[in-house]
Input
Amino acid sequence: MTVHRDFEFEVKRSARRRTLCLQIRDGQVQVMVPTRTPDRQIQSLVNKNSDWIKRKLREQAARPKAVPKKFVDGESYTYLGQEHVLRVVEGAPWPAELVAGEIIVTLPARLDEEARRAAVERRLHEWYRLMALEAFEASVEHYTEKLDVMVKAIKVKAYKRRWGSCSARGELSFNWRLIMAPAGVVDYVAAHEVAHLVHHNHSADFWAVVSDLMPDYRDQQVWLHKFGGLLDI
Output
Protein backbone atom coordinates (compact mmCIF):
# COMPACT_ATOMS: atom_id res chain seq x y z
CA MET A 1 0.00 0.00 0.00
CA THR A 2 1.36 3.43 -0.98
CA VAL A 3 0.53 6.57 0.97
CA HIS A 4 -0.63 9.81 -0.65
CA ARG A 5 -1.01 12.87 1.55
CA ASP A 6 -4.81 12.42 1.60
CA PHE A 7 -5.34 8.69 1.03
CA GLU A 8 -3.68 5.32 0.48
CA PHE A 9 -3.55 3.50 -2.82
CA GLU A 10 -2.52 0.06 -4.01
CA VAL A 11 -0.42 -0.48 -7.13
CA LYS A 12 -1.14 -3.59 -9.19
CA ARG A 13 1.39 -4.39 -11.91
CA SER A 14 0.61 -6.71 -14.80
CA ALA A 15 2.62 -7.83 -17.82
CA ARG A 16 -0.63 -8.02 -19.81
CA ARG A 17 -1.63 -4.41 -19.18
CA ARG A 18 -0.67 -1.74 -21.70
CA THR A 19 -2.18 1.37 -20.11
CA LEU A 20 -2.45 2.99 -16.69
CA CYS A 21 -5.81 2.82 -14.96
CA LEU A 22 -7.27 4.24 -11.73
CA GLN A 23 -10.03 2.35 -9.97
CA ILE A 24 -11.92 2.92 -6.72
CA ARG A 25 -13.89 0.02 -5.24
CA ASP A 26 -15.29 -0.36 -1.75
CA GLY A 27 -13.36 2.68 -0.60
CA GLN A 28 -10.04 1.30 -1.89
CA VAL A 29 -7.93 3.13 -4.48
CA GLN A 30 -6.16 0.87 -6.97
CA VAL A 31 -3.74 1.83 -9.73
CA MET A 32 -3.35 -0.82 -12.45
CA VAL A 33 -0.18 -0.39 -14.50
CA PRO A 34 2.14 -2.31 -16.85
CA THR A 35 4.90 -4.18 -15.03
CA ARG A 36 7.74 -1.75 -15.79
CA THR A 37 5.90 1.51 -15.15
CA PRO A 38 8.21 3.87 -13.18
CA ASP A 39 7.06 4.85 -9.69
CA ARG A 40 7.29 8.53 -10.59
CA GLN A 41 4.81 8.03 -13.45
CA ILE A 42 2.39 6.30 -11.08
CA GLN A 43 2.74 9.08 -8.53
CA SER A 44 2.19 11.69 -11.23
CA LEU A 45 -1.04 9.96 -12.30
CA VAL A 46 -2.30 9.87 -8.72
CA ASN A 47 -1.38 13.50 -8.06
CA LYS A 48 -3.04 14.66 -11.28
CA ASN A 49 -6.27 12.87 -10.35
CA SER A 50 -6.21 13.41 -6.59
CA ASP A 51 -9.25 15.72 -6.55
CA TRP A 52 -11.28 13.16 -8.51
CA ILE A 53 -10.10 10.35 -6.22
CA LYS A 54 -11.05 12.26 -3.08
CA ARG A 55 -14.47 13.11 -4.51
CA LYS A 56 -15.14 9.46 -5.39
CA LEU A 57 -13.99 8.31 -1.95
CA ARG A 58 -16.39 10.78 -0.32
CA GLU A 59 -19.23 9.62 -2.57
CA GLN A 60 -18.61 5.97 -1.75
CA ALA A 61 -18.33 6.67 1.97
CA ALA A 62 -21.69 8.49 1.87
CA ARG A 63 -23.54 5.62 0.22
CA PRO A 64 -25.75 3.58 2.56
CA LYS A 65 -24.42 0.16 3.51
CA ALA A 66 -26.14 -3.00 4.62
CA VAL A 67 -26.41 -3.57 8.37
CA PRO A 68 -25.25 -7.09 9.32
CA LYS A 69 -28.16 -9.35 10.20
CA LYS A 70 -28.52 -11.47 13.34
CA PHE A 71 -30.85 -14.03 11.71
CA VAL A 72 -33.39 -13.95 14.51
CA ASP A 73 -37.18 -13.82 14.65
CA GLY A 74 -38.65 -10.37 14.05
CA GLU A 75 -35.86 -9.00 11.85
CA SER A 76 -36.73 -7.25 8.59
CA TYR A 77 -35.51 -8.61 5.25
CA THR A 78 -35.90 -7.09 1.80
CA TYR A 79 -37.36 -8.94 -1.17
CA LEU A 80 -38.01 -7.18 -4.50
CA GLY A 81 -37.75 -3.80 -2.81
CA GLN A 82 -40.24 -4.57 -0.04
CA GLU A 83 -39.54 -5.21 3.64
CA HIS A 84 -40.75 -8.49 5.14
CA VAL A 85 -40.60 -9.68 8.74
CA LEU A 86 -38.72 -12.91 9.43
CA ARG A 87 -40.62 -15.47 11.47
CA VAL A 88 -38.66 -18.42 12.87
CA VAL A 89 -41.01 -21.21 13.95
CA GLU A 90 -40.49 -24.70 15.33
CA GLY A 91 -41.52 -27.79 13.44
CA ALA A 92 -40.36 -30.28 10.85
CA PRO A 93 -37.54 -28.71 8.80
CA TRP A 94 -38.92 -26.96 5.74
CA PRO A 95 -37.51 -24.56 3.12
CA ALA A 96 -38.05 -20.86 3.79
CA GLU A 97 -41.18 -19.43 2.20
CA LEU A 98 -43.00 -16.11 1.87
CA VAL A 99 -46.45 -16.32 3.44
CA ALA A 100 -48.81 -13.36 3.89
CA GLY A 101 -45.96 -10.87 3.76
CA GLU A 102 -43.72 -12.75 6.20
CA ILE A 103 -40.67 -14.91 5.51
CA ILE A 104 -41.21 -18.16 7.40
CA VAL A 105 -38.28 -20.37 8.40
CA THR A 106 -39.20 -23.64 10.11
CA LEU A 107 -36.54 -25.34 12.26
CA PRO A 108 -36.36 -28.21 14.77
CA ALA A 109 -36.84 -27.19 18.41
CA ARG A 110 -33.66 -28.91 19.62
CA LEU A 111 -31.20 -26.42 18.09
CA ASP A 112 -29.14 -24.18 20.38
CA GLU A 113 -28.94 -20.44 19.67
CA GLU A 114 -25.78 -20.56 17.55
CA ALA A 115 -26.96 -23.51 15.48
CA ARG A 116 -30.36 -21.89 15.12
CA ARG A 117 -28.93 -18.69 13.68
CA ALA A 118 -26.66 -20.63 11.32
CA ALA A 119 -29.64 -22.65 10.11
CA VAL A 120 -31.74 -19.52 9.58
CA GLU A 121 -28.91 -17.90 7.59
CA ARG A 122 -28.53 -21.01 5.44
CA ARG A 123 -32.26 -21.27 4.75
CA LEU A 124 -32.51 -17.59 3.87
CA HIS A 125 -29.59 -17.80 1.45
CA GLU A 126 -31.15 -20.84 -0.20
CA TRP A 127 -34.50 -19.07 -0.49
CA TYR A 128 -33.02 -15.84 -1.86
CA ARG A 129 -31.01 -17.73 -4.48
CA LEU A 130 -34.04 -19.74 -5.57
CA MET A 131 -36.21 -16.62 -5.83
CA ALA A 132 -33.44 -14.84 -7.75
CA LEU A 133 -33.12 -17.69 -10.23
CA GLU A 134 -36.87 -17.79 -10.83
CA ALA A 135 -37.04 -14.00 -11.29
CA PHE A 136 -34.13 -13.88 -13.72
CA GLU A 137 -35.39 -16.86 -15.70
CA ALA A 138 -38.72 -15.10 -16.23
CA SER A 139 -37.13 -11.75 -17.08
CA VAL A 140 -34.53 -13.23 -19.43
CA GLU A 141 -37.22 -15.24 -21.23
CA HIS A 142 -39.20 -12.03 -21.77
CA TYR A 143 -36.25 -10.12 -23.24
CA THR A 144 -34.82 -12.95 -25.35
CA GLU A 145 -38.21 -13.37 -26.99
CA LYS A 146 -38.21 -9.67 -27.84
CA LEU A 147 -34.79 -9.91 -29.47
CA ASP A 148 -35.30 -13.41 -30.88
CA VAL A 149 -32.04 -14.65 -29.36
CA MET A 150 -31.16 -17.81 -27.44
CA VAL A 151 -29.50 -18.14 -24.05
CA LYS A 152 -27.54 -21.29 -23.19
CA ALA A 153 -27.93 -21.17 -19.40
CA ILE A 154 -29.00 -18.88 -16.56
CA LYS A 155 -27.22 -18.99 -13.21
CA VAL A 156 -27.17 -17.02 -9.97
CA LYS A 157 -23.86 -16.45 -8.20
CA ALA A 158 -22.43 -14.70 -5.16
CA TYR A 159 -20.53 -12.00 -7.04
CA LYS A 160 -18.73 -9.41 -4.94
CA ARG A 161 -18.06 -6.75 -7.56
CA ARG A 162 -20.56 -7.25 -10.38
CA TRP A 163 -24.27 -7.58 -10.90
CA GLY A 164 -24.23 -9.87 -13.89
CA SER A 165 -22.20 -11.31 -16.75
CA CYS A 166 -22.62 -12.81 -20.21
CA SER A 167 -20.12 -15.42 -21.35
CA ALA A 168 -18.94 -15.91 -24.91
CA ARG A 169 -20.96 -19.16 -24.89
CA GLY A 170 -24.18 -17.29 -24.22
CA GLU A 171 -24.47 -18.17 -20.53
CA LEU A 172 -25.93 -15.45 -18.31
CA SER A 173 -25.02 -15.17 -14.63
CA PHE A 174 -26.56 -12.83 -12.07
CA ASN A 175 -25.77 -11.71 -8.54
CA TRP A 176 -28.38 -13.35 -6.30
CA ARG A 177 -28.45 -10.26 -4.04
CA LEU A 178 -30.30 -8.38 -6.77
CA ILE A 179 -33.51 -10.13 -5.69
CA MET A 180 -33.57 -7.67 -2.78
CA ALA A 181 -33.80 -4.73 -5.22
CA PRO A 182 -37.04 -3.44 -6.78
CA ALA A 183 -38.35 -5.52 -9.68
CA GLY A 184 -37.38 -2.80 -12.17
CA VAL A 185 -33.73 -3.15 -11.17
CA VAL A 186 -33.88 -6.93 -11.60
CA ASP A 187 -35.37 -6.45 -15.06
CA TYR A 188 -32.73 -3.86 -15.99
CA VAL A 189 -29.82 -6.17 -15.16
CA ALA A 190 -31.54 -8.97 -17.08
CA ALA A 191 -32.05 -6.67 -20.09
CA HIS A 192 -28.42 -5.51 -19.85
CA GLU A 193 -27.04 -9.05 -20.01
CA VAL A 194 -29.49 -10.17 -22.71
CA ALA A 195 -28.35 -7.19 -24.81
CA HIS A 196 -24.82 -8.61 -24.56
CA LEU A 197 -26.04 -11.62 -26.52
CA VAL A 198 -26.32 -9.18 -29.43
CA HIS A 199 -23.40 -6.84 -28.69
CA HIS A 200 -20.67 -8.20 -26.41
CA ASN A 201 -19.43 -4.71 -25.59
CA HIS A 202 -20.72 -1.39 -24.27
CA SER A 203 -20.94 0.42 -27.60
CA ALA A 204 -23.63 2.88 -28.62
CA ASP A 205 -25.37 0.03 -30.44
CA PHE A 206 -25.41 -2.00 -27.23
CA TRP A 207 -27.02 0.81 -25.22
CA ALA A 208 -29.55 1.32 -28.00
CA VAL A 209 -30.66 -2.29 -27.54
CA VAL A 210 -30.88 -1.83 -23.77
CA SER A 211 -32.96 1.31 -24.28
CA ASP A 212 -35.32 -0.53 -26.62
CA LEU A 213 -35.79 -3.26 -24.04
CA MET A 214 -36.14 -0.88 -21.09
CA PRO A 215 -36.62 2.82 -21.93
CA ASP A 216 -36.15 3.90 -18.29
CA TYR A 217 -32.97 1.87 -17.72
CA ARG A 218 -31.07 4.94 -16.52
CA ASP A 219 -33.41 5.22 -13.53
CA GLN A 220 -32.50 1.66 -12.56
CA GLN A 221 -28.80 2.43 -12.98
CA VAL A 222 -29.15 5.38 -10.61
CA TRP A 223 -30.89 3.20 -8.03
CA LEU A 224 -28.12 0.59 -8.18
CA HIS A 225 -25.44 3.26 -7.89
CA LYS A 226 -27.09 4.80 -4.83
CA PHE A 227 -28.44 1.76 -3.01
CA GLY A 228 -26.55 -1.26 -4.33
CA GLY A 229 -24.54 -1.35 -1.11
CA LEU A 230 -27.71 -2.24 0.81
CA LEU A 231 -28.21 -5.48 -1.10
CA ASP A 232 -26.78 -7.95 1.37
CA ILE A 233 -27.63 -9.95 4.47
